[in-house]
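Appendix B. Raw example, untouched.
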Amino acid sequence: MPAPHARFLVEAVGRLPVRIIVAPACYPRAFDIARSLGWAKAYDALYLAAAEYEAAELLTVDRGMSEAAVRVGIRATLVH
């Protein structure tokens, strides 16, 4: 990717309306989600728990994450 285009994309990401949520309830929910999916670690499940907590749609480039979200009832869009 040419450097000017890469710089444009980095700047665009910086303009996204990103919020940091503080939700201790997400941790036990992430544990439950990870267990229900058969995952040994809850790291990725935290993204799912946060989306669920916020009643938000998960946007991801990870097909497995998108499919996992749908399996636990979280709206997800696979971004190509």
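End of appendix B.
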